[in-house]
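User: Working on a comparison across species. This one is TetR/AcrR family transcriptional regulator from Streptomyces thinghirensis. Can you predict its structure so I can line it up against the others?
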Amino acid sequence: MYVLSLTLEGANMAQQERARRTREKALTAAAEVFASHGYSRTTLSEVAERIGMTKGALYGHFPSKSSLARALIDESRQAWASLRTEYDTPGADAEGVLEGVVVNFADRLRSDVRLRATVRIAADCPVLARTLADVLTEVQNALMELIRRAQRDSGFPPYSPRLVANLLMTVTYGVLYAPAACLESDGAHDGEPLWRLLFGALSGSGVTGSGRGDGRGVSDP
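Assistant: Here's the predicted structure for TetR/AcrR family transcriptional regulator from Streptomyces thinghirensis:
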């Protein structure tokens, strides 16, 4: 009886693992199609075909196209939360945390098709855009909190936290659509000089064309 129980438990675990892998494949496939074709032109049949399964089998994991989209939007919320956890550690400099989460979130947008698909979904589907807007509001509020902390603890200039947060979010999503050549500078291909310039200008630390501080400072406007 004990052996049978262990066998059944092992079979259940294997089944759960297969279901998890299938779900992950489905999300990646859906993200690729969403990012390429947009929400309205994506079909469950195309997603199922991309991962070699029937539409009926896909229904077992995601009963509708909107459920796939909502799962990807939920992941975008988790991605942001994980970055906050990674960088916003006890005793960390608030300005450094602010730069770290923004730059790495921008990098994730460019490299992670699942995260990138949420931007296309927001542009194509007004109903789901409202759901994503809730995520963006969370991101904005988190940035404003970090900006206030940086102003209080790190000498960050007293610009409007909401204005700075909106600027950072605008640049973050703008970088997603910028041609690669626009992000290249002095051999760098990851947009680092652009971010150094932006954060240097915001903090008043002063930057050179290469994105490195020159020690001269920049007066506040």
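For your comparison, note: The domain at 2-177 is CATH 1.10.357.10 (Tetracycline Repressor; domain 2).

User: Helpful, thanks.
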